[in-house]
Amino acid sequence: MFQVRRRNENDLVMRQNAVALEDGTELEYLTFPLLEELGVAKHLFTTRLGGVSKGEFSSMNLSFTRGDSHGDVLANYERIAGILGCRTEDMAASHQTHTTNIRRVGPADRGKGIVRERDYENVDGLITDEPGLALVTYYADCVPLYFVDPVHRAIGLAHSGWRGTVGKMGKRMTEAMGEQFGSRPEELYAAIGPAICRDCYEVGRDVAGQFGNMAGSGVVTPGKESAKYQLDLWFANKRILEEAGILKSHISVADICTCHNSGYLFSHRASGGRRGNLGAFLMLVPKV
Questions:
Q1: Dist CA 104 CA 126 (whole Å)
Q2: Could you give the CA distance from residue 57 to residue 71 in angstroms, rounded to a whole number?
Q3: Coil, helix or strand for 80?
Q4: Measured CA angle at 281 (ends 275, 287), to 5 deg
Q5: Parallel, antiparallel, or unpaired for β 220-222 and 143-149?
Q6: Residue 84 to residue 151: CA distance in whole angstroms
Q7: Which of 40, 137, 240, 266 shows its CA 20 to 30 Å from the CA of 73?
Q8: Which of 282, 275, 262 is nearest to 65 (CA)?
Q9: What does the CA dihedral 92, 97, 102, 103 come to, rounded to 10 degrees?
């Protein structure tokens, strides 16, 4: 059962959307009202529902590397492409290794990681100002970060686990969009997607210690056992975005826990690693 876990009424919950499929099932996905209202980009975050994958990958798995059928995964992408109004050949995917490396992608990158081999690696953040090019990143507990600049018509999408959060991926993305497109922090809109919540994310002293001065802010709190801590990746990433200069009113936080909702969203921790991958998609639309 889908459960929305919220800390306060200021954190906006994502909108649930459903599309009826020819086989009688429904494809469900999530969107941010804040980003939809800008009118310059299409986006979504997938759930487990509406794909063709089977078993532990059931059913909307978007990973080619976890042992699922290649044909099933490609069919899942085709269903998402139909919602976005693009082709699988118009998508460009990250190669995530928990870095803070960011790549600007353009027309020559269409299809890479989906229907073409990537010629890049170790990339956890993607940015573009190319309309019709859909950025793709992957999740199963880590934090999705969406960025939209409606002034310069540019977008960015990033994966931020605990390592990426320590490295301030949100700040690096803000800076990269400024360098590449002239984006000013106060012009950017950002969204923090579904991820593992503080209650579910227990870490050891080695990980907790990586957060330094953020530890005293509520990002890291005492755990349920000695030498264990609870890590709040949503709060940490929100603070990083605000410190980068993005306005509080321009930030939306999903506050939907992947681990609490592992029947609806893939969770590495809840499944013990036996799972597929969710996908974040973001695509700039042509100017009318």
A1: 6
A2: 13
A3: helix
A4: 175
A5: unpaired
A6: 22
A7: 40
A8: 275
A9: -40
Q: What is the pTM of this model?
A: 0.96
How many Cα atoms are found within 13 Å in the side-chain-facing hemisphere of 137? 30
Among the listed residues 75, 96, 78, 94, the one whose alpha carbon sits nearest the alpha carbon of residue 86: 78
Q: What is the pLDDT along the chain (288 residues), one digit of tens a residue?
A: 455 544 444 444 799 999 999 888 999 999 999 999 999 999 999 999 999 999 999 999 999 999 999 999 999 999 999 999 999 999 999 999 999 999 999 999 999 999 999 999 999 999 999 999 999 999 999 999 999 999 999 999 999 999 999 999 999 999 999 999 999 999 999 999 999 999 999 999 999 999 987 867 899 999 989 999 999 999 999 999 999 999 999 999 998 999 999 999 999 999 999 999 999 999 999 998
β-strand pairing of 189-192 with 251-253: parallel
- Return the closest-CA partner of residue 254 out of 8, 44, 11, 7: 11
Residue the block writes with tokens 């928990």: 98
